[in-house]
Write a structure and sequence with these properties.
This protein is of the alpha+beta class and 111 residues long. The protein has a single domain (27-106), classed as Nucleotidyltransferase, domain 5 (2-Layer Sandwich), CATH 3.30.420. Helix content is 37%, strand content 21%. It has a four-stranded mixed β-sheet with strand order 3-2-1-4, with helices on one face. Helix 2 (62-78) packs parallel to helix 3. The radius of gyration is 14 Å and the shape is globular.
Amino acid sequence: MKPTKIQLRQARKRRIRSKVIGSAVRPRLTVFCSLTRVYAQLIDDAAGKTLAAVVSTKGKNVKEATKVGETIAKKAKDLKITAAVFDRNGRKYHGRIKALAEAARAAGLTF
């Protein structure tokens, strides 16, 4: 039987997460896009803690994803974090994911 789109994305996610690990110095920036919102979190996998989180307020478009990227980078600066590892959560680096990543880079976060 052919695997579904969700099963294929979950397999990609497991494959990525086996290589991408966040620490206190360089946390994991994970991105999730639902049907209504865009979410971003800075996670320290060693301690199992979320250091910062941002959710879009109005919607789910590229403009909102850009705002979320800028805000998460600002929160990272406040926590004295300059670098992170990017976790796209098994999704394509395209559209909202790309807009968020580029906005975070432009705001000073490196990955």
